[in-house]
Amino acid sequence: MGKNWFATRWGIIGVGATIGVLAALLQKLGNPGNMGICVACFERDIAGALGLHRAAVVQYIRPEIIGFVLGSLVAAYLFKEYRPRLGSAPVVRFILGVFAMIGALVFLGCPWRAMLRLAGGDGNAILGLAGLAFGIWIGTLFLKSGYNLGRSQKTYASAGWLLPLTMVGFLVLMLIYPQVPDQAQSGVLFYSQKGPGAMHAPLPVSLSLGLLIGFLAQRSRFCTMGALRDLILFGQTHLFGGFITLVIFAFITNLILGQFKPGFVGQPVAHTLHVWNFAGMMLAGLAFALAGGCPGRQLFLAGEGDGDSALFVFGMIVGAGIAHNFGLASSPEGLGPHGVAAVVVGMAVCLFIGFTMRQTVK
Predict the structure, then answer these.
(1) Per-domain residue ranges for the chain?
(2) Which positions, given as ranges, span the membrane (predicted)?
């Protein structure tokens, strides 16, 4: 056995299975339907809680996101893998985070939620996952033709702490300004009174499971985008094993808990516009590929000191505010008024980045 069992094939399979089970349990404990874990949706809720958008149904500081970052930080320090670094095309990574979030909110979910929607019986997730794979495939074409955002540089340890400290700040705000029944605002924070933002597992449970997942994901290098990228680029199934077992174990847990409801219509926080389910995740997948990781992986990398990933995370949170303030995000009723334009512009921006940021081999 190597030094890090979690990074072995069976280790990643075990982590994927654990995340699948815990995500389904979080739904049972109060999180929204087919949304036991959704990095994009949860960062969107955080943006709403901070007042970056005023969509009243999606405003809540999600402790799972805080746990992901801090759990990764703990693992990185315990195993001497905390490596503070930054400096690789920061503005590009921020913009990619913005458009990754916009694409995800057109679909209504990140790669993790797409898998969990499938495991819960939502057929619309098939279109989302197909779009995700297609977007990542476009990204692999850029990678093969020399796309590169440059090398990060070692930096001060404190620089790598900035996103984890931000997450600690969010937790402190929740404790100082807890949710007050029948009030949409508590101090500086906004809380949903209805809709997905009002559905959440108890804070100690959400935070504890988030810490556990953050710890395990940092050790295993779990990444949904990386799983598809490696499969497409190299035919490698190392990370893909975790991808598959997440779906299988979430499906089994949903069956046991009575949460599996197959079909396309009437699925929780989902729409049936197949073209835009595909196109939204195609945009998100391309942005993830160009940035080097899915939204979960970006949180885990930020926890181990990667300032470039932290910028991507901040980009996604700001992107959520933009998506809801400008009518780009979808809802169960369908696309936002400017969702189509958002996907077209987002693809144009990502293709511009991919084509112009390639290093020619001499």
Answers:
(1) 5-356
(2) 7-26, 60-79, 91-114, 126-143, 155-177, 197-217, 238-257, 269-290, 310-329, 335-355
